[in-house]
Design goal:
The chain is of the alpha+beta class. 37% of the residues lie in helices and 21% in strands. 39% of the residues are buried.
Amino acid sequence: MTSPADLPSVSFTLMASDAILKTSMCAWFLSSMKNMKAKTGLLLVLVGLVGLGGFPALGQEGPVTLKSVSIGNQFPDGVLFQVAAETAAPAQIREIRLEMKVKGSTRSAYAYLKFTPATSVEGEYLLKTGGADYKPPGTLIEYFFVITDSEKRTLETPRETYLYLDKRFEWSHVANGPVEVYYYGPTKSRADLILNAAVQTIENMGATLGVKLDKTIRIVAYNNVRDLLGAQPFESRLFETEVLREGLAFGEYGVLLIRADSGEPDGVASHEMTHAVVRKAAGEFNQALPSWLNEGLAEYGNVNPGAGFDVVLSQAISSGQLVPLRNMGTIPGTSREIFLVYAQGRAVVKFLVDTHGADKLRALFVEFRKGQRIDAALQAVYGFDQDGLDNEWRRSQGLPPVEPSQQVGPAPSPVVTPTPTPPAPPPRRPVFGCAGPR
């Protein structure tokens, strides 16, 4: 707040105004200083003028003003921003710019509201959240507006946040530390179970990988597969023709979508939360991780993994259907192959940690953060590449090494990854989760 000691600098601002305004206002100012012991009214006037960046030019009656802001949830299509603003005639509002970003992200975007220029306007903009512009329920949007009139005067509104949720349901939430769980219906006890599993996973895998999550992760828990399908991106719905997805992790948005009615909702949440920790550990090179490592870590860090993947791995070993690690760079097309990526990946990750220690696993992620690809990173830390690791693990299982003819070139970086549950015998958790677009 302005104090009497600040007033001389304010009078200097006044003297920089138009000559006529300078004479009349300075005379008034000096007279007030001499005759008023209580300066409260004067200070309020001066503070108001300084807040506007000095006096407006002659002939202008006031600044740009914001009359109202309305935000409408149009799930699954988008979020509708509506603004009413005005300025002093004869000026017109010419531009309303919406500045926005996902809370916690370093990337930002902007858009212009649609309206016809006038002294008083109402504009709107639809932030799309479906199709190619998909954004998951649970996304926290940070935004503000910059309103400009024809006299180049601007008003920048305070920064606010808006939580985009699935409007089909009435949501409640529980929270602990960096985790929030959103749920609907009489399912609080299950939400608490999910929350505790997620927090425990962050502690366990954070220590294993040597990282600490520095942003909030929101878990949005759906009560059944039908409800979850209505919240997934379209391409993920197509994926359900082969296997049933338990969850998806959207790292950039800090959101996990899970199907909470599976036999082990805490296991689903733990798997997906591990993806968030792995993303933090790998940094901007997270997409370069092969699927066997990304999904293997997610199951290794799972606090309640179930027995399904053990069955899948055992069957693959006994039938001679193991796949070379090098061929598991991306998620394959059939359910059997997908299940094996998770099962075999977890076994190899466990072998790495049990045999070489967590320190070396942390060192591996240091190499990833430097931009090293999987073979170079493994070579730098362990002294072998994917083929060497594959054969070391196979030897530990009493299996012959990978035949050179079975090995192919490095697979491209994965984009989408799932968390399946094997076929026969069906485990308690019959479906799977996924790292989502990373």
